[in-house]
């Protein structure tokens, strides 16, 4: 259940804030614009968030697109738990929280949304999950932060901010809906048990 | 050969002889195989040339008597033999054991009885008294030849493991047996009520989904045989009584002057059917472990004398017959080496007096089967058990002398163990020599 | 170790939190079976052995489908319990199978406690009890609970009436244990030879011999199977007499428990235990139960089978990690 808990309680005195609430808001707006530009409008678009925080970002992007374009864009959510490649390496099973794609996958260009792009393994799992539901016209990737250190040939189409990090550093994204505030932090080491980002 | 019998002086122990009511510091003079005298310490100074055996710190009692064991020979020597069973007996403090006839072949002919006695002589440890079958082949159909069996050495008759279901045959057995005067010891179970059982019938058996034997399955047969004993005047001894209601029936029968006696097994006053939880096959026996109320009633009945004596129902089974599904596992557990400490645990808890506990292990069982054993009276056979009331072990398989190792008491702290066992003036077990 | 331990041997012994965790997980798997591609790769490379030593079609195929939808390799080993007629003991059978390194052994056996027995002897695989004698059938109780939760939103405080041969039903036992965890009022109703009063009261049930009082106000009526093969045990004179009094029928339900839903573990015997009108009617959740059965078993295989195998753990501990710690995901 590693990424289900709220991050409200954590002491972040030695952390660096790399994005504040305002910057996050502007990143989301920019990404929404870029998506519309690249896809020439919202027609046949669908936004799919990766649980948990990609889910909230997807929602924000949807709202933005609707504001800009006046079109309602279908939104979905994928839970990648069942597609993870490290399930058999963990001693405890993460909670399965379900996938919901309430639109015809075959007829949509899907923009996959996540908070942080790191090794690329989550995105790989999300792609597999989506493909089990159908054959989308295309799949694009939008992330709030790209921190590098890819282990798979995956890149984002839309990036809020690239954050150069060392592998051992920890990137934490906090979102109002879940964590009570908006902000992206970089922590010096992966000292917090079970939290490796 | 010396003309004088060997003389042995047992000194310094606390002598407890329920048969005579003796309890205190006494010395015992043994001449040859018999007890020559029991007297105050120091009274035997100047009796001349005598070997001295110190019993300092030990309780000296008559040799323990177990009237219900299974030695499995002939026929199931992989479970136990007369020799290995005898070793377990003397290590457990028993000098006399009576072995049940459910061997292969069944002890329903003199040749089988004689074979068992020969094996016992060869083992040369404790006294082994065979019990003959009530019915041929334990089939419950026709009477075994009691005269032939008694002459060969059977001391009682039993179909143990099974009841005599046919009441008319049971009646005839009781009547015909006047010829030998021997007691019928009976396993009381209504086979229809108990069909397919694995444990006591209770809320727990329903929860575990195991078929249960209701206490009534035992009680109806106890009631029947009380009536048949009344009708015929024949002596009935109830094996392994396990129910509170059974005790009530026996109490009433005794008040009415009906000639019945009864035994209880240590596990029936120690464990209740909660031991079956987790499907431990070591807790599977017949009679089954009963309810906590039954367990309490058994202890009370023994102390009061409604239940006459304690027996072990020593039932060796190889591990393979217990390492199976619960409903397929064999019934029964070892008893010879755990009976004494489990009984003494009830003395420490205050449920039995020491006098009553030792009586129930010596003269009382002997009386149930009319055996001349279980006393330290002058002239009696020098069968003596030396008990260390303080010594304890945490039971492990290495302690077990039997060929089989089936007991639910592994890991139990067993306190009060035989230090030495003497049969006919000869030490047949010494815990120090045994390295224990 | 998983939230519920290494094995699932029964409902008895589980906490309410553990049951809720299993139900919540199972809920997620319901969706997987509605997809076009009814398969997730979660248990790729894992082996599930269905050791069914007692006749079963439904439960076995449910576990088999569940395993396959999770991408596990599922092997069915069946026979009768006495088909240790070859002389092999259950322990040996289990150890032989374990030598082939399964991750989960699902066992159905006619002896109560059989799952406990093999769990005691298997050192690596997880054991799931798919029904042992008259003892427990935990996956059935879980799927029943999931079905009730879907129908009522919560199981908490429901009044559930179990009709029929409760005495010889492992399904009833597991259900009683589970429902009691949720504070349900559980009633059993059957002829007195089957609905043993003291014994079922000790399990926390109310015991009834007559249908009207047992049905009064019930939210759920669970109809158990009256097994033909048990008739020889003479608990009831004959099935006609039984049906006359205990059949679950629409007029009876409409009168005494008008809002109830009906469950049946099946296979159902129409006209004996339950009328077709009820079984096929709007109260019936029977087919929902079967669907949920697959989801529950997927969840069990996920929770017990997805963990790292012991062999893999040993290997991982031997190998020094290459430089930087390998990152899991994200």
Description:
The complex is a heterotrimer of chains A (197), B (436) and C (330). By secondary structure, chain A is an alpha/beta fold. Chain A has helices at 21-38, 53-69, 121-131, 176-179; strands at residues 16-19, 45-50, 75-78, 109-117, 138-146, 158-162, 170-174, 183-187. In chain A, strands 3-2-4-5-6 form a 5-stranded parallel β-sheet. Chain A has a 3-stranded antiparallel β-sheet with strand order 1-8-7. In chain A, strand 2, helix 2 and strand 3 form a beta-alpha-beta unit. In chain A, helix 1 packs across helix 2. By secondary structure, chain B is of the alpha/beta class. Chain B has 2 domains: 7-60 and 381-402 and 409-430, Roll (Urease, subunit C, domain 1); 62-368, Metal-dependent hydrolases (TIM Barrel, Alpha-Beta Barrel). In chain B, the strands form 3 sheets. In chain B, strands 1, 2, 3, 4, 5, 16, 17 and 18 form an 8-stranded mixed β-sheet that branches. In chain B, strand 17 (413-423) and strand 18 form a beta hairpin. With 330 residues, chain C is α/β, with parallel strands linked by helices. Chain C has 2 domains: 16-137 and 292-308, Aspartate/ornithine carbamoyltransferase (Rossmann fold), CATH 3.40.50.1370; 138-288, 3-Layer(aba) Sandwich (Rossmann fold). Helix content of chain C is 40%, strand content 14%. At the A-C interface, helix 3 of A face helix 1, helix 12 and helix 13 of C.
Summarize the structure.
The complex is a heterotrimer of chains A (197), B (436) and C (330). Chain A contains 4 helices and 8 strands.
